[in-house]
Design the sequence.
């Protein structure tokens, strides 16, 4: 056959950057990014109003008000990442656009990394939106700096965990609806340890579950920092769960990405 | 198992018509050759690249998938540029390539419009442009005319022929439009139940399998019975017509005999027996007959 017409990849930008740019543009200019962020801002506004009202009635300490709002901001912000990630591959499958992506010579992993960047941008935007609320509720008690920095750290760990998890499910399953429902069900399961009776939570098994569960552990770490005034390093052990789960899910998601197939499952 | 024991070799620059009934395995073969699906066993090379180098193969092939989706929120030029960049082209080069290909497929005026506003035919042409984004050596077009009106079908097939000639690429065309395959393709391959059931040039395939099944001979009415006897001795079944077709005999040729052989057999036997032949026509001999013959169990 005729001479090879292929050109080296190094001439252009790296594939994951190309994919990330396209995904970011689709998400924020033509997709769900702005409506989701608007809904997030409304939720934070309502939460802030309620905690501020309770604070004015002396039902809540100011630090508690900040911690509560922060926990909502981090949890919902991370949820946005899950929604973005869970839709990313299975959504392409349903729209019939995945095949043309797979026909490019770009490594499968690069496609997934590009999509992960777009999903994580939802958390970055949510965190930026939460800053004025934290500042308003926390002004005067010296927690704003700690709250903003710790929410960035904890939220980013949770966002990485959920991005990895959502992408993993989205890569494996064939249907977008299944991907979203499985991802959301898993997220609900992560809140289960907080519903255990206090006696169980205080037992060895209970505490282990609380520490392993990245959501419970991360939000508890934030509470200890803001409400109890602990130093960031004092309760660092609560971050072991979020760090480990983030590393594990991202690693597994990238490994599975190499076997990304047109229809999902394990057929190619 | 969608495909089994497939042994296929296509020369550079060939336009191969890839035929088969629904479910025959055409799309599966195209997906395997374009490395979207991995075969359970076997070996293949595309453009000289063995199958265990899938990324290299993808650099050398262009594919229009059967049910390709298009992002409605992007313009045709944005979408093509994106794919050009995925093939390693720098941004400016990608944009220039996208514009060139849009012009080539007749979408230069609509390159800046959102794909959501494209007709089905325009989307197919956009898909063909995407298949050419990497200057491929082999282009797979999977049902490129599916769902198009006759004018759209004609445009796409013209485009395909032009691409094959101007770019000098090998084109594998999966389609149900047999007449177009007869016109445009150099080679044809018919797949049924995942196996190749006919392969060769269009003329070879049409001649080999389709003919000689039925024919029509016209003799003087008074010699009709004699003609039937003569042909029966030659294993050609002849049934007399009636009414206005009173001198005509409908012939069923022996299986496995080529069209020209069957024709000469019939004519020579009749003439040797002193039966004048007033008219003679062989039915069949077209690709569609071959197709129906070799896929009749589907």
Sequence:
């Amino acid at each position: 056959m005729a001479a090879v017409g292929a050109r080296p990849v190094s001439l252009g930008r790296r594939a994951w950057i190309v994919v990330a740019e396209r995904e970011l543009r689709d998400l924020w200019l033509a997709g769900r990014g702005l409506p989701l962020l608007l809904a997030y801002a409304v939720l934070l506004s309502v939460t802030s109003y309620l905690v501020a009202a309770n604070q004015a009635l002396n039902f809540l300490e100011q630090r508690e008000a900040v911690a509560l709002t922060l926990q909502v901001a981090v949890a919902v912000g991370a949820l946005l990442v899950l929604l973005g990630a869970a839709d990313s591959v299975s959504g392409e499958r349903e729209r019939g656009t995945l095949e043309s992506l797979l026909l490019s010579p770009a490594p499968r992993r690069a496609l997934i990394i590009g999509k992960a960047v777009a999903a994580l941008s939802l958390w970055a935007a949510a965190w930026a939106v939460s800053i004025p609320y934290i500042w308003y509720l926390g002004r005067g008690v010296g927690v704003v700096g700690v709250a903003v920095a710790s929410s960035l750290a904890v939220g980013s760990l949770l966002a990485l965990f959920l991005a990895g998890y959502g992408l993993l499910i989205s890569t494996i399953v064939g249907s977008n609806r299944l991907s979203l429902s499985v991802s959301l069900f898993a997220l609900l399961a992560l809140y289960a340890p907080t519903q255990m009776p206090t006696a169980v939570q205080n037992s060895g098994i209970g505490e282990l579950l609380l520490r392993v569960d990245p959501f419970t552990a991360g939000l508890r770490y934030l509470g200890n920092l803001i409400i109890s005034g602990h130093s960031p390093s004092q309760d660092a052990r609560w971050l072991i769960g979020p760090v480990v789960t983030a590393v594990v899910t991202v690693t597994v998601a990238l490994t599975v990405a190499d076997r990304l197939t047109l229809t999902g499952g394990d057929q190619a | 198992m969608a495909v089994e024991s497939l042994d296929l070799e296509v020369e550079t620059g060939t336009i191969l018509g890839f035929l088969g009934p629904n479910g025959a395995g055409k799309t599966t073969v195209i997906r395997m050759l374009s490395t979207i699906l991995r075969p359970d066993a076997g070996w293949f090379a595309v453009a000289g690249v063995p199958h265990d180098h899938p990324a290299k193969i993808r650099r050398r092939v262009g594919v229009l998938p059967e049910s390709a989706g298009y992002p409605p929120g992007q313009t045709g030029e944005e979408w093509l540029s994106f794919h050009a960049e995925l093939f390693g082209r720098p941004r400016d080069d990608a944009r220039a390539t996208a514009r060139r290909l849009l012009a080539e497929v007749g979408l230069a005026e609509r390159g800046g419009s959102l794909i959501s506003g494209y007709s089905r035919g325009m989307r197919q042409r956009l898909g063909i442009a995407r298949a050419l984004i990497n200057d491929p050596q082999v282009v797979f077009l999977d049902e490129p005319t599916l769902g198009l009106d006759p004018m759209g079908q004609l445009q796409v097939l013209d485009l395909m022929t032009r691409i094959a000639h101007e770019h000098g690429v090998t084109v594998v065309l999966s389609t149900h439009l047999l007449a177009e395959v007869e016109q445009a393709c150099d080679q044809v391959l018919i797949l049924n139940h995942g196996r190749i059931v006919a392969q060769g040039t269009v003329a070879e395939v049409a001649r080999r399998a389709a003919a000689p099944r039925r024919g029509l001979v016209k003799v003087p009415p008074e010699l009709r019975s004699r003609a039937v006897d003569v042909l029966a001795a030659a294993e050609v079944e002849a049934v007399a017509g009636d009414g206005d077709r009173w001198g005509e005999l409908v012939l069923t040729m022996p299986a496995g005999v080529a069209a020209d052989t069957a024709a000469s057999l019939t004519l020579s036997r009749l003439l040797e027996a002193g039966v004048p032949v007033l008219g003679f026509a062989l039915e069949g001999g077209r690709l569609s007959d071959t197709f129906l013959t070799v896929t009749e169990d589907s």
Q: What stands out?
A: The first helix of chain B runs from residue 26 to 33. Residues 15-70+118-206 of chain B form a domain with the Rossmann fold fold (CATH 3.40.50.300). Chain B has a mean pLDDT of 84.
